[in-house]
Design goal:
This protein is of the alpha+beta class. Helix content is about 25%, strand content about 40%.
């Protein structure tokens, strides 16, 4: 049997600027044999490396612990309409790069340069944005929710004719999901807006706007009576 008297739920929020952008890019090469497909990756990989080296010279910083390259090789299947089935035609090799940067002022330029490389079956995803100080922002959001919960409980007691100091917290539950569907570190990442930087110059990079991170927490508190 529970001694719970009432439950109060409150939301706390923190709005902050993103401090990290994550880029992911990849390309494919094809050949009859796996070794040949892997060798064909070298030219495209060299172009990507050279572009990143040039961006470094311009001031782009990398979070070294989050710079990753990867190669995968797998059978290449092509759909045969006549046979109504997939048939294997050689091997497909994929080279991928993922990196994070705190140099947000260069994000539009980085995306513009990387997306224009002449590489086979090349994909450059729009950058995603995140915040690194996870625990600090979680704490701020929780403190905000706790202040709201106390006000709500005091107001309920006042309306119903009870004394708030005759009750204490029995248990609580914290949910950090809120509007942060992609995980806390990404906040509520608004869609990347696209706009012209200088009003129509064809050589200008398209500007990517990060928006701001919204960290939400829902605090649910169970109160019990501790005084008469």
């Amino acid at each position: 049997m529970t001694n719970k008297v009432t439950t109060v739920s409150a939301r706390g929020s923190v709005v902050t600027d993103f401090d990290t952008a994550t880029f992911a890019l990849s390309f494919n090469e094809f050949a009859p044999k796996a070794k040949e497909a892997k060798l064909k990756l070298k030219k495209g990989a060299a172009k990507i490396t050279a572009a990143l080296d040039e961006l470094k010279k311009k001031g782009l910083e990398f979070l070294t612990n989050n710079y990753r390259t990867n190669i995968t090789v797998q059978p290449n299947y092509v759909y045969d309409r006549n046979a109504n089935t997939n048939k294997m035609e050689g091997q497909k090799a994929t080279y991928s790069v993922t990196f994070q940067t705190p140099t947000l002022e260069m994000v539009s330029e980085v995306y513009d340069i990387l997306s224009e490389l002449d590489v086979n079956e090349y994909t450059v995803n729009s950058p995603t944005y995140s915040v690194r100080a996870e625990s600090a922002f979680k704490q701020q959001a929780l403190e905000d929710a706790w202040r709201v919960a106390q006000v709500l409980f005091a107001n309920q007691c006042s309306v119903l004719g009870f004394e708030a100091d005759k009750f204490s917290v029995n248990s609580w539950q914290v949910n950090y999901s809120g509007r942060d569907h992609g995980g806390f570190s990404k906040g509520a990442n608004y869609s990347n807006a696209v706009g012209s930087t200088n009003g129509g110059d064809e050589d200008d990079a398209i500007e990517l706007n990060a928006g701001r991170a919204i960290i939400d927490v829902v605090l649910t508190v169970d109160y019990v009576r501790t005084g008469s």
